[in-house]
Each structure stands twice: as C-alpha cells, then as structure tokens.
C-alpha cells in the first residue's frame, strides 16, 4: 500500500509541475487534468476515502447547484470508472506475476548472493566462519562452504577484503527450487589453543580447530 501511494504521489507531483509550467497546449492540458483527477479518485478508493464527484472536465460538482439525480448519476459513473481501473490494475499485476513465474521456471539455474558485514561473536582467538546452504528435511548440506578467516581482533584476516566479503552460491537448479525448505547456515570454528584458559606456556598449543558456534535461518 505504501509503495502504491508513493508512486501515485510522485506522478501527481510531476503532473502538477507540467500544469504549472504553462507550456502545454489546451488539449494536452485538458487530458492531463483528467489523468490527475482519475489518479486522485483511484488513490482515494484504495485508501477507503470518500469518492469525489466531478463533471466531465474534472471539476468538483457543487451540490448547491447540482440536482440530486445528476449527483447520483455522476457518482455512479465515477464509481464505475474507479472499479474498472481497479480491475485493470489487478489484471496487469496478475499478468506480471504469471510472466515472472514463467520466466523463473524457464531459467535452468539461479544464484544466491551473500554479503558478510560483520561477525559479532566474542571468541578470543582467530576463527573460521563458514557459510553454506542446508536442507533440514534431508539433513544435508547442498552447497560448498564460503570460508572467511576472522582474526581475534574482530576483523578479517585478509584486511584488504574488509567491507568486500561477498559470495555467490551458483548452479542452484530446479531440483533445489522444489525443495520444501532450505536454510542458510553459518558455522564458527575457533582456531588456537586447546583451552582458552591454558596459560601454561609449556603446554601451550596452537592451530587447533575446535567447533565454537552455529547459527541458521529457518527453512524458507
């Protein structure tokens, strides 16, 4: 609803500028005024506001100078025009959805773009962040891992890739599209000592990979 009203307001602002410019011929100005009034009436209808009754030139009818029968007939005509516009908009939307679905179904494969902004997790040592797609019903991963090495300072190990941690999961075909659920899973592996509290330098180990955490989206 918000997007629809926003588009209508943008159209009205543009048309108002054209009317105030004073450069339009009379016939184009008349047609533009009809478009403006039709857009306003349509907007009032989808917002459940009162319908404004107008004459053929788009001017609001004065109930003090217009008979009741004329007002009733004008109201019927205006209601019919608005309903026709609503049906036309609905039909166009359905056609767009059908074309979009047909185009999507005809595509042999599709992709998922991922942009990693930050890892908010207090680890204390270096870590590996692995992201992948998972089928919760079949209990298996359906993609390779996207690996990002994260330092204990809270930044990527490869500092040149800061704010540029992007990946594309490609070659997801129609079989994946038919899956009932697909989850996006992020795993964190700590890389360092056996125990974080191991302060004995004689027993200090390094480079050991230990599972630290996991998160995932609900199946979609």
Automatic annotation (TrEMBL):
Highest taxon of source: Eukaryota
One Pfam family of this chain: DOCK_N
A GO BP annotation: small GTPase-mediated signal transduction
Keywords associated with the record: Coiled coil
Alphabetized GO MF terms: guanyl-nucleotide exchange factor activity; small GTPase binding
Coiled coil regions, renumbered to chain: 72-99
Positions of the Dedicator of cytokinesis N-terminal domain: 2-205
GO cellular component, one term: cytoplasm
Membrane-traversing stretches: none
The protein's name: DOCK1 protein
